[in-house]
Amino acid sequence: MSVALRPADQRGMTVLEVLQTMTLLAVGLLGLTSLTLGTIHGNADASRLTSAAVAAQDKLEELRAAGFDQLAEGTDDIIFTGVPFARSWSVCSDCPIAGAKELAVTVSWGGAASDAVTMRTIVTR
After folding, report:
1. Is 52 helix (H, G, I), strand (E, B) or coil?
2. Given 3-state DSSP classes, what are the helix, strand and coil percentages for the chain, each rounded to the nearest 5?
3. Which CATH number characterizes residue 109's domain?
């Protein structure tokens, strides 16, 4: 196998080498673009999940502050950090033991069944 060497006075790259370099660069940048888009979508999902968890925790604290005898089921729609959420809560009397109530708050968004956060707590007298 012989390798043709360029004379010392012919420096630079051929058009073929430039095209190969540009093709390799384009493939690499396309890969980075899809990675960046995936990261942006993941961050948006994480932000909605965090907002839903905060909205659920806020409602749990509000229910706990209302007092044991005033606990009742309900629903509401809220806009939290610019995102609309549907929030519902339930009260189970004598759960898990007599004299206690279990509160469950579910916050959902988007419409998919997986787009929801549920938090539970137990309240006693």
Report:
1. helix
2. 45, 30, 25
3. 3.30.1300.30
Domain span at residue 57 reads: 15-124
Q: What is the pLDDT of residues 40-62, one digit of tens each?
A: 999 999 999 999 999 999 999 99
> Is the residue at 9 inside a domain?
no
| Nearest-angstrom CA–CA distance, 103 and 2 | 81
Instruction: Indicate whether 5 belongs to any domain.
Output: no
The model's pTM is 0.73
Are the CB atoms for 59 and 71 separated by under 8 Å? no
Question: What per-residue confidence (pLDDT) applies to 6?
Answer: 59
Contact 95, 104 (CB under 8 A): no
Q: Which two tokens stand for residue 48?
A: 């909605």
Torsion of CA 79, 81, 87, 90, to 10 degrees: -140
